[in-house]
Specification:
Elements (H helix, E strand, L loop, with lengths): L2 H21 L1 H8 L6 H23 L7 H28 L7 H21 L6
Helix pairs in contact: 1-2, 1-3, 4-5
Length: about 130
Amino acid sequence: MNVRTYFILHTVIFVAIGLGIVAMPTLMADITGAALSEPEGIQLSRLLGITVASLGILTWVTRDLGPSKYLAGVVATLAIWHGMDAANMFFGILQHGKTGLAWAFPVIHSLVSIGFLAFLPGSMRSSQPV
């Protein structure tokens, strides 16, 4: 798999998830076991959905970048974001004793982060001077 294909796959998955969270924040909360009884919680959930969809759009817009410092910046940023999100989710699960499907989300984010890290060295190789 190359970076372009990975970016397209990331776009499809994370735009769909992000828009799903925006449209149905309480459904996502039910799946993960979070409580969104307050209007503020629903609003924060929608903000998360917008962020996730935006990261998917970022990979769509940058899918055709060749090896460069710009592509390396996008790849590194997404690796860090997914890694930090996974760590936050793992901590929340351990702190609140969640089980079941809640574990799928940090595992997925960890794997996505590792995928971006795998592309990082190749994304920096460029024949153009910096």
